[in-house]
Amino acid sequence: MLHNIFWKDINSSYLGANRNFLEMSGIKNIEDVHGMTDYDMPWKKEEADFFLECDRRVMGQNKAELNIIEPQLQANGRQAWLDTSKIPLHDEQGKVIGIVAIIEDITEENEAKDEQKRLLTILSATPDVVGIADSGRLRSCTSLDKPSQAMSEYESQTQTGLRYQRYFGDS
Has this prediction a pTM greater than 0.85? Predict the structure, then answer.
């Protein structure tokens, strides 16, 4: 996966970005991003406020902030979730002159986790015998409901990688 990358000056004005960031932002030309701020981007005002707060903190404390999980409204109208790391930029004398940020879009990962939680909640509430199988593994069971756990020797909700035969014998 290619990451989105940008860099800003001490005033949090964009100095440059990679193609992925430009596409995410709806910006056609690299020259167009120069001098823009987060308020010029398609983000919500609250998001821009948060991004600038993080910028100021990173530059003011001269300390990187890694794995900041943040929402972002993208140029195409899609609400995304991002894992962002911001690092201070220095001049030759070591003075902070801006930041560089590396962004990974984790929207699909978050949605998959939410769906898994939803399914496990349903699974744990059902009185029926139900299991969730992972078709990517040879007859591997990834989750069991409570009645199935009671029928087997396993107690935990998730039994990743265990074979069907260990629960119910050959079938």
Answer: no
